[in-house]
Amino acid sequence: MPGSEHTQAHRQSARLAARTLVACHFPVSAGQEVLIIFDAQKTLFALHLKEALEAADASVHLVDVTGEPAKVSELLQQLADCRATGLLVLASHSMWVTGLLPWADFDGGIPRLRIMCTPAWFDCLLPEESLIRKYSAPPDELASYTEMTLSNLPRHRTVRVTSPAGTDLTLVTREWGVSSFSEVYTSPLEGSAQGTIVADLSTHLGRVSCPITLVIDQGRLAALHCPEPDDQAYQAYQAEMEQRLAANPIDVCLAELGIGLNPCARLTGVIMEDETVRGTAHFCFGDNSRFGGANRSGFHGGTVVIDSPALTVVE
Questions:
Q1: CB 186 within 8 A of CB 291
Q2: Distance CA 253, CA 190 (A)
Q3: b or e along 44-83 (b: 16 or more beta carbons within 10 Å of the residue's beta carbon)?
Q4: CA–CA separation, 34 vs 22, rounded Å?
Q5: What pTM was computed for the model?
Q6: CA of residue 111 relative to chain centroid, distance
Q7: 266-290 CB burial, b ≥16 within 10 A, e <16
Q8: Residue 124 pLDDT more than 70?
Q9: pLDDT tens per residue across span 157-183
Q10: How many other CB atoms are found less than 10 A from the CB of residue 3?
Q11: Beta strand spans in 90-193 (E)
């Protein structure tokens, strides 16, 4: 039956993703106690993580907080100073709002949990489907592709970023960093970015229905345009970025250029998956201090994704 075949394929992908995550991102010792906190939204992945961890000789405890998300805060309180226990948190939005938010550190704009557990891993609210696709990428192929991509990227050079939809931006790159199974990234030198970005795929608020043009002047978002000014996606993005500008001018400074690497990721409107799709590039605003920059803020976002980017060195 087609439905059962799909289910079987999905389970196989989930099993592969769990094994890859444990092997590459969650090193455990034989006999180590590991806690997996989850709810009904990510039960499948939790079960496969348990299987993968037990194959690594860890002692695994599943904690299902479905219907009682406030329990998460109690658990984290118990684990706050426990270095010996490993922790995996598969978060839903209800878990985040009710139990995780008080434990979040937003230094650099990216949420991390203030927990001493070693190792510790938090999925940053990625939906289960996105998690499975992200970590289903074959590690060897992805490592090879990442190395090839890095070898062709200019460091400390003025580059021009273009795309078929109309992006035409020059900027000065720093060193490039690597986020495994997702992207390579750099932070443009402050004030160096000049030109336009045309977001034809998505923003951090979801897929775009009409391309959004961002005008960048001296490294900052200077204006926004859309062929359909009443477009809801455009209006929502415009309203948020105007609020960011009013709250802190640093929040509209261009902070990151990233290039997606993952062959299994899909464009879904979930920004943390969209920005990893191979064949795309993305731009973020706000804090760049974690990339070696001088702009420090609690915000790192306003992300936009473009299709088929090309980078050339400006002589």
A1: yes
A2: 8
A3: bbbbbbbebbeebebebeeeebeeebebbbebbeebeeee
A4: 12
A5: 0.91
A6: 11
A7: ebbbbbbbbbbbbebbbbbbbbbbb
A8: yes
A9: 999 999 999 999 999 999 999 987 799
A10: 7
A11: 104-105, 112-113, 120-122, 158-162, 168-172, 177-179, 183-186
